[in-house]
Amino acid sequence: MAMKQTFELRVNGRIHRVEAAPDRRLLEVLREDLGLGSVREGCGIGMCGACTVLLDGRPVSSCLLLISQVHHQEIVTVEGLGGHGTLHPVQQAFIEHFAFQCAYCTPGFILSAVALLEREPDPDEQVLLEYLSGNLCRCGSYLNILKAVRAAAQGRKPPSS
Amino acid sequence: MSPEVLHPATLEETLTMLEAYGEEARPLAGGTALVLLLRHGLIAPRALICLEEVSELQSIQFNEDHVWIGAMVRLQTLARSPRIHTRFPVLAMACGEVGNIRIRYQATLGGNLAEADYASDPPIALMVLDAIVWAQRAKSKRAIPIAGFFHGLYTTALEPNELIVGIQIPYPPPGARMAYLKFRTRSAEDRPCVGVAALGIFEDGGCRDLRVAVGAACERPQRLPEVERLATGRSLDERMIRLIAQGYADQIETLSDLRGSADYRRRMIEVHVRRALEEVCNGGGAVGASAGR
Question: What pLDDT sits at residue A82?
């Protein structure tokens, strides 16, 4: 049976050396070993989106991934968005549109929106819902979240003359 | 105890490992189902064989008369591929209905089939496409027609040391019309209560070939050839559609779970087979492109 192993994880542009059992969930490694508190456990079965991370740019549930599955791929959490002292445009849009109340779901929603806009710079409503309908917000801030993501998408478009 | 996780780089290595461990190892594809089974203690393998880096399992190839979908191709890739959408719209639709976007970006077609959850969309679409599942072990390879692949709840024709390497799907004849309907009873990301796939080939206003598969309401996805044949050479009019919908509702042995009782599912099969056939007839169902490249 397997004991702890050393993994080199690529998270937010840095390489982290982690000692973990090979079947430890990525969610736990990010939160407990690397202190990335934006990655949150909600349902634990891939339905709520609170633990969303980007894996080579794909939005995935970190509660459904083992550390062994991801140690060659680039992982991004909300801590890795934006630059020094500046917010990512999606984060800025969430603030401007009050797209949260308790904010537990916010990092997951922001990463889903970032993944959406990376692939679809000018998303129609159907694609927008395809990317966001898998994230749950129990405060019910959905309308403001949609406004924020639409605004972020608008901001990325070149101004039309 | 934690299982050890093996990382083969080639198919040959993978099959050698499967042979060595036998039933004590489980292949790990996307992991969206397997990780939950591990956490709930429903399986406790000695080793997991991670397929992430096995290059032979990753590609989609459009060949002369069929497409080859590697076992590790993710559901989102199939849902969004323009060529899959053109030739096999029913498969693109079914893959696009699974779970939520995060599940579709991680789960694979091979993993989906191997899990054999009865409440799953892609297997239902593969039934009307007459897909062939290719399974391989160290020294042999075999083709399993999808109709014989599922044996029952979470059980398949696979032997313990066999691996799904890919799915082969013949191009449907030009002009084939297809539809997939997913009926949910709880939330948007839920598994289906009933799933219906339909494929129709029409000629001079009549129906040359009709295929209907129903799943999620029963232990494994099913087609009823004798009911399908009622439409052969006939017009798929309102009366015929109702006859076929009734046939599926009468003959499929439905099950009860938290998504609906057996009796409710029987009624919902009738409704959704009818709607799927209406979609196929009215051209609402996307039209499959001609065969070949």
Answer: 87
Please determine, for residue A158, whether its predicted confidence score (pLDDT) is greater than 80.
no
Same domain, yes or no: A36 and A72? yes
Q: Which residue segment(s) compose the domain that A138 sits in? A: 89-156
Check B38 against A68: CB less than 8 A apart: no
CA separation (Å) from B11 to A21, B55, B56, B72? 25, 8, 6, 12
CATH topology of domain B178-281: Enolase-like; domain 1 (3.30.390)
Q: What is the pLDDT of residues B94-146, one digit of tens each?
A: 999 999 999 999 999 999 999 999 999 999 999 999 999 999 999 999 999 99
**Complex ipTM tops 0.90:** yes
Q: Which of A47, A49, A69 has the CB atom closest to B50's CB atom?
A: A69
A22 neighbors A29 (Cβ within 8 angstroms): no
Same domain, A93 and A51: no
In-domain check, residue A16: yes
Does B1 lie at the interface with A, CB-CB under 8 angstroms? yes
For A71, the closest chain B residue by CA position comes to B52
- Please give the pLDDT value at position A157: 67
Whether A134 sits inside 8 A of B101 (CB atoms) is yes
pLDDT tens digits along A73-98: 999 999 999 888 899 999 999 999 99
Q: Convert the pLDDT of each residue in A22-72 to its tens digit.
A: 999 999 999 999 999 999 999 999 999 999 999 999 999 999 999 999 988
CATH of domain B4-170: 3.30.465.10
**Cβ of residue B188 closer than 8 Å to a chain A Cβ:** yes
What does the domain layout of chain B look like in residue ranges?
Answer: 4-170, 178-281
> Quick check: is A161 in a domain?
no
pLDDT value at B197 more than 70: yes
